[in-house]
Amino acid sequence: MFTLLLQVVAPLLIIALISIPLIPVFLGKVSIKNAKYRVILQVCLFCAVFLGVSLFQFGGYLVNAAEAVTTSNSGFAGSLAQGLGFIAAAVAVSCSSIGAAYAVASSAPAAIGAISENPENFGKAMIFVALAEGCAIYGLLIAILIVNKL
């Protein structure tokens, strides 16, 4: 009974802790003076919530992992290799998205500047921005291929 209560109350408490700094924002009482404090508080609360969720999940994860290994028909399901495959897919998507964001952040302002000087450069400028976005799509395709092999 206690674990069921903890599983219900703990996430609600975590959501309440994350929402507390946002109340003055919705009331319109945020000033520039305390904005830095609120950002630091929000980052600290996020880290605390992440740590709390991680700690709550370890017990259930270990039990579920042991059951998956014993009940699976193939030797690959629920193994370390499958977990590393999912991590590889996540790294492929995240790194390609970060790279694409950096490329778009540097190419889009240059494209806007080129278009403002000469409107005929619109097609050439948008090609460079689209090529930068293509990097994220390639990372997503690689992740899909990795997950399909699992």
What proportion of the residues form beta strands (DSSP E)?
Answer: under 5%
Largest sheet: none
Q: In the CATH scheme, what's the topology name of the largest domain?
A: F1FO ATP Synthase
Low-confidence runs (pLDDT<50, min 5 residues)?
A: none
Q: What's the shape?
A: flat
Structural class: mainly alpha
- The SSE string, one letter per element, is HHHHH
Task: Tell me about this structure.
The protein has 150 residues and is mostly helical. The chain has 2 domains: 1-71; 74-150, F1FO ATP Synthase (Up-down Bundle). It contains 5 helices and no strands. Helix 4 runs antiparallel to helix 5 (122-149). The protein is flat, with a radius of gyration of 23 Å.
Topology:
Blueprint: H1 2-19, H2 23-27, H3 32-71, H4 80-117, H5 122-149
Helix pairs in contact: 1-3, 4-5
Keywords:
single chain, 150 residues, mainly alpha, F1FO ATP Synthase, 2 domains, 5 helices
Summarize the entry for a quick read.
With 150 residues, the protein is mainly α.
